[in-house]
User: Fold these one by one.
Assistant:
Number 1:
Amino acid sequence: MDLYNALGIEKSADSREIKKAYFNLAKTHHPDKGGDAERFKQIQRAYDVLSDDGKRSFYDQTGQVPGENGAPSEGGMPGGFPFDIGGLGGLGGLFGGMFGGMPGGPFGPRGGGGPPSSRRRGKAPPKVHELSLSLADFYKGKMLKVNFERQRFCKSCRGDGYTNASPCDQCGGAGMTMIGIQVGPGMMMQTQAPCAHCKGSGRKPGPSCTSCNGRCFTNEENVLNVVIEPGMKVGEKLVFTGECSDHQDFAEAGDVQFQLGEAEEEIPWKRDGTTLKSSLSLTLIDSLLGSTHTISNHPGFPDGCVVIVPPGSLHGHVITVKDAGMPIRGTNRKGDALITLQVRLDTVEAAAIQKHKELLRSILKSGGT
């Protein structure tokens, strides 16, 4: 059973996410709470491995748990394969493992001796959050204060958790040990595994850091001022560089990204770029003789947007209201509003037409003369 699936987390999850997932599942599945004992054992086993850096590293590379099914618990490999032989990709992969070293060794992405701080590379992936905003928010702009707690590498120990460390006696500071696997009669394959003595760190820890009590991190409150400028669009992202929590696998913290989304609203206006669109229902007499109407809920007109219908307007005609659209970002200008007319014939008008249709025909044909 995949240990990450057992906790319902991604392989990139940090220690905090692992702990949170474990406690949430334990509340539901603990036998004292009426949960299934076998399911709880799986959750406990997954947490025991993934919360330990050395065991987790070994599991990530071999697919096995140290001490189970022939996998080593301390140093060497007594027998059996630490991974699916099919995953080696044929003889090229097999001999690459025998003579060229396996990925994740001292020269691979997770290898190398020294404390955790010396092995971090690259930048952590971003955390993306969606903000649902109303049409008025996009029109007028808005500022949000986002408060959250994040973890930072302890400044005293640089996130190592200890001070005055020396090279590990077992692996000589490499962080990895070579293990042998018999793949056939008289044929051995060598691969690498995290040193069980130092859990892959390559160091023999000294006293725990007094600033973080060996936790490697300190917590801090963080506040981000998220500024929505008038005229911004759905789908745009606001990026706050390096504002995520620090992570042991990465030298730089990831970015916090806010993606702008559209909230569901029951209003008569729809946005199309810098244009606002709406429709107007009016009677036949209002369309023929001209009329003035107000459409409510416009973000820029508290008393409604005034629409002047010229005489002789027909069903489907589009009326343009200048400067009644969305703000054009970075300028003082605005787009236009487009109003589509929907002419309806009410019962009074229908009866009048039926009664005076000959008179109306003669008036319309003569042009009123």
Number 2:
Amino acid sequence: MPAGLILWGVGAAHGISWGGLVIGLGMVGFCLTTGGGVPINYLVDSYKDLSGEGLITMILIRNTMSFGFNYGITPWLTTCGIQNTLVAVGMLAFGFTATFFFFVKFGKRLRRASARTYWKYIEKGIGATH
């Protein structure tokens, strides 16, 4: 994602061939598609019984961030220009994407630490519906 955004932004600002822009945009499109599925798979694999509630929460967060980004991108582009804006967005994307390192390192420990709370929540939910 960061490489695609930077290629697209710097390329558009400096007038590179349309092929370079298509490659950058293709990289961004691929990452948008796969980037949505990875956290959903992690949630469903890790917290099967709460996957519905987790999906709703993830969708609300995603839509809120999408609204905020879409609301703020036009003034940002107008103020900083396409190159600087997309390089900054690329760095933000790198920061968000790099959080997977945190989960690779500490994910198992976090799931173990939350297991007791998870099962209490499941028991409470099952008791309330039966």
Number 3:
Amino acid sequence: MLLHDHHIWPQHAIGPAPKNNLLRCNVAMHAFLHKLEYEKWGRWQDKVAWQTLSGLIGKEEMQLEILRNIDRSWCSSEWNKQRLSKLFTGRAPPNKGKTKHNDEGVRKGALAAKLAMAEGRLYCIGDHWRGKKFSTEHKNKLKAARNATPKITCQNCEKSFHPSHFARYHGEKCKSRSRSRRP
């Protein structure tokens, strides 16, 4: 029978715990204890532990849930810095050497970003290019492409803008619109 060590006072709540803080239990009991903790305190860590241990969510869903909820301020304590250092020492980054030309996952991500931009759900994926130097020829091509894009006129302030600026600052979000509605 597989036994787990359950922390009576969870490490995510109090940090490193003393040895007398452990309770030996089976997997089902461990999941139940985390469910009780979640119902009592409402901590997302207990919910993820309960759902993972009980088989309600898989490993990938657990990792996504952690990334969605994590507060990185806990990384700043000395104890957690040492723990993370041990964990990642000697490991290569998971994306090392992968490009859209040699990896299916990266290719799918690039296509998804293109589709999101075409549908208007994503306006700027240029963070990767910030700070990089471009040749004059490449800059001229970028300017020509930008100038070829038709501009949109805001119905509130009657100014013309590139679609990315329009979506961010005009239309429903236009400052002139809020001024015109004041009594």
Number 4:
Amino acid sequence: MTDITVCGDLLFVTTKDDPSPGTLMVFATTKSTGFGGFVAPRLIQTIEVGIGPDSVIINKACTLAATANEGEGVYDDAIGLMNPEGSVSIIRGPFDDVNNAPTVTQVTLNKWTDEELIDMGVHLPLSLNAMKYWNMMEGINFTAAIESYTPATVLEPEYLAWSGDESKLYVNLQENNALLIVNVANNEAESINA
């Protein structure tokens, strides 16, 4: 479990299983039965989101959710570094209806090249050139990560906040020392600010 929040009568929980996609689980909240008794939360939905959802945020109407999917790298002795892409998942309800699955849209972060990100002042903790350099060292295997590299593999969303009118998401790219702005209406990454 990576994050938990309540909206109305719903409980939202994110879980991750890097390097596989994570989940957003939606529960009906705990209810009092009177006289000190309670009914435990009941699972309504299990929704697949991006890889490594570190946090979840829900709009005021409880109809829209978003997850910051860090896509954190995992090192395996046999395979080497597996470094999935960071992303933001936008999930549109209803969340309280077991018969209607919410829709999930992945906002990809491959809008910029390494050079553009560096020119904007965005920190790239393990760029393609850095991986090629370190891959020459004994005991380090970045071959798979180099072959699957995109700039989004080094952009790592951690936390989210809504704009006042909930039309935009502000996403903290902590390792990158940057802020990503996502347009919710068109599911698009608009800008990155270092």
